[in-house]
Amino acid sequence: MSASSKKKLRKEQEAAALTEKQLAEKKEAKKLKIYTIAFVSIMALVLLIGVGSLIFNGITNSGIIERSTNALTVNDHKINSAEMDYYFIDSLNGFINDLDEQSNGNAALYLQFYGLDLSKPLDEQQYMGDPNMTWGDYFVNAACDSAKNIYAMCDAAEKAGHSLSDADKQMIDTAIANLELTATMRNYPSAKDYLKAQYGHGATIESYKNYLQMSMLAESYYAAHADTLNYDDAAIRAYEKDHYNEFSSFSFSYYTLPADKFLTGGTKNEDGTTTYTDEEKAAALEAAKAAADSLLAFPDAKLFDKAVKSLEINKENKNATIVTVENAFYTDAKIPTLIRDWMCDGEHKQGEMTVLPITNTTTDAEGNETTITSGYYVVLFDNIRTNNSKIANVRHILVSFEGGTKGEDGTVTYSEEEKNTARTEAERILQLWKDGEATEESFAALVAANSDDQGSLTTGGLYENITVDSNYVENFLNWAMDAHKDGDTGIVETEYGYHIMFYSSTNELSYRDTMIFNTLKNNDLTAWYEAILEATTMTKGNLSHLPSDLIVSPSHTH
Question: Phi/psi at 187 (nearest 5 deg)?
Fold first, then answer.
């Protein structure tokens, strides 16, 4: 298997892990933001915007002014400007890192969408077109919120008697110890100079260590409280009763027929605007309804699409096609609310069709409501999946295809002989396992020396929490979702080679119940967390020394 193919496989595996995380949080009532730094980034001390690209406009390099200026008070904690710089810079870093993840490494493109030019001072650019706020203001506010959240959690942790573990303390000590090495690698005279370049003139090793300790304590306490939350089957069933459809997936096709597509006649004004009489509008709506009704004779997706393309209004529209949605969740933006409500209203059979009026209700100054129909949806129902399927954990050993022939489009194809060679090797490894102890431990032990999947070498080939919606290659996913008992093995072929599969276990909760469990947990975490923040006081002081006029080199957003 080529290096590029292996990279692609790893991307798919990483995407699968991301999918699991997103699905677990899908029904979260509200995203929780503690605004703490990612500890992996702390250990590596590599930030996307790049050390050395920050330009601070301080009066002096000593940092005395920053350390002596009270910028924020949270409860009874007074935070100086130098300490607030940590929150400011890491809020900025977090913002860009998030964009980079969302855009698969193309943060610069997203920054253009947000109207943020990192080659210009932050305080000279309007935030999202808001004339009352600059991007400098935005990150100052984000820094204040971040500081409030962390101090609030640390106070709550102290009150609850929660402290950092020895392992947490060791991680922080290691991060601090690595500062000198990182400074040398980046050509700074000392760790102190490195911190100043990253966080401003007031940064010191002592205050930075305190910042890490507080950030880690906030995350640790949050995680510890989350671990205390548990829900039995009765709680899951009780919540499901009033939220049943929220954990189901919907598959359907639809086509939209706006009435204005059927308008004829009209009177063109001098400025070129065409107006239509009420009679002409009524006739257009009637024609739209007739066209919608005509499509009900095609209860099959292919026939439905063909009929849409044949409509009179689409004679000049080569792009006319139905919209097909597969396994979208209840709150997914791909499901128009009107269609979602119809699919949840009673039972429907595969192939059932309906026409739904698209209406808009307005209220005048006197409280009188007027409902106007602007067109119709034609809907073809496919199925509703309840998601009562299992969540699987499997191990695998990948034997890649070798050789191959690259086509003009860059696609690599493998001969039967090349595939058979990989198959023979996969069978040899599986037999080697069978001839040995034939346990899960012995299977995991074979991975490091035999698997071409770099992404799972250190985990014994293990992939966990696999659901029907996981983003794995088809045959791999299908095998994991098939009926198996613990210890079952098999060999499956994918575009990457042959996978020797080992079925490790099935999670106790189904896919559906896991989503409900996580919803309950996230709801309770949200309420607990917001109660802590609500009880926390924050008073802004002199924030003028925060680097709201910061300039960041755009070359470091890639």
Answer: 65, 40
Task: Count Cβ atoms below 10 Å from residue 479 Cβ, excluding itself.
Answer: 22
| pLDDT tens digits for range 184-232 | 998 999 999 999 989 998 999 999 999 999 999 999 999 999 999 999 9
**Contact (CB, 8 A) for 461 and 396:** yes
pLDDT digits (tens, 9 = 90+) for 464-475: 999 999 999 999
Q: How far apart are the first and last CA of the chain?
A: 28
Query: Can you tell me which residue has the tokens 């899951």?
Result: 236
Question: Mind listing the pLDDT tens digit for each residue in 55-89?
Answer: 443 334 678 889 999 999 999 999 999 999 999 99
How many whole angstroms separate alpha carbon 451 and alpha carbon 500? 9
Amino acid at 263: L
CA distance 209 to 86: 11
Please give the Cα distance from 59 to 378 (Å, whole number): 67
168-178 pLDDT tens trace: 999 999 999 99
Among 92, 112, 110, 114, smallest CA distance to 101 is for: 110
**How many of the other CB atoms lie within 10 Å of CB of 359?**
11
CA distances from 48 to 58, 99, 558 (A): 23, 11, 8
Q: Which residue type sits at 547? A: P
Assign 22 to helix, strand or coil: helix
> CA separation (Å) from 475 to 104, 487, 500?
26, 19, 12
pLDDT band at residue 8 using 50, 70 and 90 as cut-offs: very low
The rounded distance, in Å, linking the Cα atoms of 36 and 31 is: 14
**Residue count (the chain):** 558
Ordered DSSP codes for 352-399: -EEEEEEEEEEE-TTS-EEEEEEEEEEEEEEEEE------EEEEEEEE
Q: Over 245-309, what HEC string results?
A: HHHCEEEEEEEEEEHHHHCCCCEECCCCCEECCHHHHHHHHHHHHHHHHHHHHCCCHHHHHHHHH
Tokens of 535: 């009880």
User: Phi/psi at 126 (nearest 5 deg)?
Assistant: -65, 140
* Sequence-ordered list of residues with C-beta below 8 angstroms from that of 412, at least 6 positions apart, any chain: 2, 5, 404, 405, 406
CA angle 60, 63, 67 (to 5 degrees): 140
Mean pLDDT, rounded, for 232-257: 97
Find tokens 């008073």 and name the residue. 539
> In the predicted model, what is the mean pLDDT of residues 27-31?
35
pLDDT band (50, 70, 90) for residue 553: low
Dihedral, CA of residue 234, residue 238, residue 244 and residue 247, to nearest 10? -50
In 25-104, which residue ranges form alpha helices assigned H by DSSP?
39-44, 64-68, 81-102
Amino acid at 15: A
Q: What's the pLDDT at 314? A: 96
For a pLDDT cut of 90, what percent of the chain falls above it? 75
